[in-house]
TrEMBL record:
Recorded superkingdom: Bacteria
Protein name from the UniProt record: Uncharacterized protein
């Protein structure tokens, strides 16, 4: 609707002046996949800080377990303990729309998560094993801060407002750790 009297009183079979801007945008959203993609992409982009914050808060324990498993499976480390310190950086590699429903949409986001852990372990790399006595000699107990990068797929959900042109991040629904490397 317009507040312009001339525009309101104008009558034409070609122009429909009865709709307001939000109704028009909602119609475009439903009928035009390019417009829909633009709105959803904008919502995703403006929500990235919230997604990163959720990754830091929700995945800390899993990142710690991942570092522990990496060290525990190394033959030169024994009696491993790991304490999570922090996420240093979350790099978004790419985000791809997974699904679009009437009120929700989801994204699959590939990230590189850089994080630090404090490790306590017995280092056997300079030790030697005495077969007769069945013990290690020369092992050393160490405390070290290790930095890792893990490539991760994050699956996240977003809600659409009723007008379909706005929305927000809801939650991380799942994740998958892929390649882990020490940096």
């Amino acid at each position: 609707m317009s507040n312009d009297k001339d525009f309101e009183e104008y009558v034409s079979s070609s122009i429909d002046c009865t709709q307001n801007l939000s109704t028009l945008l909602e119609l475009l959203f439903k009928e035009n996949s390019d417009i829909q993609f633009e709105f959803i992409t904008a919502i995703y982009q403006k929500s990235l800080d919230n997604v990163k914050y959720s990754i830091e808060k929700e995945l800390a324990e899993d990142l710690s377990s991942l570092a522990f498993s990496e060290m525990e499976n190394d033959a030169w480390y024994e009696d491993v303990e790991v304490d999570f310190l922090r996420v240093d950086e979350i790099e978004i590699v790419i985000g791809v729309i997974n699904e679009i429903n009437d009120k929700l949409f989801s994204y699959e986001i590939e990230t590189n998560i850089y994080f630090e852990v404090e490790c306590y372990y017995t280092d056997l790399s300079a030790a030697f094993y005495d077969k007769e006595d069945g013990v290690w000699f020369g092992e050393e107990r160490k405390i070290e801060i290790k930095r890792y990068c893990v490539n991760t797929l994050i699956y996240s959900d977003y809600k659409l407002e009723d007008n379909k042109i706005d929305g927000s991040f809801i939650e991380i629904t799942d994740f998958e750790f892929r390649d882990l490397e020490e940096v």
